[in-house]
Amino acid sequence: MTGKGSGPNDALPNPKDYWANRTAGWSAGASDGAATDDTFDRALIEASAIIPGMDVLDLAAGSGDPSVTIATHLAGNGTVTACDMTYDMLAMAQARVDKLALANFRIVSGDMAALPFPDACFDAVTCRNGLMFPADKLACVAEARRVLRPGSKGAWLVWSTIDDNPTFLTVANGLRRYFGEDFPPRMIRHSLGEAGSLSALLTEAGFQDVTERRFAYERTVPIGDDYFRCAAARTIPQRVASLTEKDWSDLLSTIEEASAALRDGDVFRIPIVARLAAGTAPT
Ligand SMILES: C[S@@+](CC[C@H](N)C(=O)[O-])C[C@H]1O[C@@H](n2cnc3c(N)ncnc32)[C@H](O)[C@@H]1O
Question: Which of 14, 16, 19, when mutated, tests ligand 1's pocket best, judged by the most ligand atoms within 8 Å of its CB?
Fold first, then answer.
């Protein structure tokens, strides 16, 4: 790998454009119904103690994870509010909910550092792979605490370090080999990846009974699965937009070759490691 890209603590220069420009890549790989892999979603539901009847807020909801899984879990008894600053991402979440005919789901455009909700109006807050990106992470967690009813739980899941998640590097290597130029991994994704970083934010924001754990599992991806296609589309959506199916086939072979260390017979064994923290809003 040449170059590590910008550092994990470098703020995104223009977050709104950054995410708006990535929407096409997410749409290429988004599930059109239930989550393809709901492992993170289930962990967040458990960590924030979500049960039917609750009003749940999912922050940085993007294309609907975990909010779509939460709506399925509530089965119409309770409400889910999916909030994100990128409307086009939320539109994907809404399309998934419509396809699954789930009730009591709404999408709301908003910045999680200044939420458009009154105090103490939710029974649980979740956030999956979103808190790494804002410049003022503490403001985001404090806002979640403000909108939670006293005694309710918030849970955040973020990527662990890049060394724990080697696929980000193997995909970047495959892209470099295919296009002949560098696409350094986006290190901001790992800005809360060190043990204790996430829980420190929750504690500083005033949450009680704060816990944090390493959350690791292995995803088994058959050769030819669209896993690497989604990864490439999300990494460089504009560059892959005009690829023909033949180009895609060559690109994916190159990425699979670059990921050979993860191959085990007919499958890739993808280590996936996150940090999961939860806390209770003070009574
Ligand atoms: C990596 S995506 C994660 C989406 C989804 N939670 C998932 O796990 O698939 C990150 C999302 O965070 C959103 N986001 C980033 N900063 C935000 C902010 N300050 N307020 C609200 N949403 C934000 C982006 O628009 C994007 O949809």
Answer: 19
